[in-house]
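note to self: dont lose this again. the chain is below, predicted strucutre after it. 252 aa total, dont forget to put it in the shared folder this time
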Amino acid sequence: MTKGDNVVIVKRGSHKRHAAHHGGAWKVAYADFVTAMMAFFLVMWIVGQSQDMRKSVASYFRDPVAFQASGGGRGVLPGARSGATGDAQEAAPDVERANRMLEQAAQHLRDKLSGIPEFDKIKDRIEIKVTPEGLQIELIDSAKEGFFDTGSARLKPETVDLLTTIAPELANLEHPVVVDGHTDTAQYASTNGYTNWELSADRANAARRVLQVGGITAKQLEAVRGYADTKLRLPDKPLDAQNRRISILVRR
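---
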């Protein structure tokens, strides 16, 4: 071998043997055991729940999509539920019961308002009714009288008394409240850009402040909106005073 030749060294020896493969059958058995235990504890939990809760769980497994679409939430008033049973036969009685409760709340509110000293003067301009959206209260202007000073968001004393009486009744319902302001189509005379939009929003906000002082919480308030003349009460009479109003809605 010459000095420039490459040397190849080959090492020979015994190879280490790997431990035998045990397989994954035990994993399948363990997974089955865990699943069975979860099912067992779920059944035990359901057994300990109320009948309404058991119906709710059953309805979910029958039709999860329908259950989620219904929201499984509360109904119109505390105690009324929607989507909890998943049964169409029970939904109708719930709606009827909720409507009756809203009607009772509306009548109770009318009785409360009748005790206001100025009520006889303003009762024809107060509308309380149950709508598909919920309990709606509207304070409607007339050609001679309004709930605010002319062209202003300043509440009249009788309006403050009215809203102060309404507030605790709505607070007791514990449902979302929306306050809307509306005007007629007569344009607000202003040189600083103040329009019916600002006026309707300012009046709704003025009503909202009194309602909050009276008991409605910030959490209960859903929205305060000014619509100007875009939602007329009398579309065929756009200049009629009845288009100027404050609308308070207690949502279903």
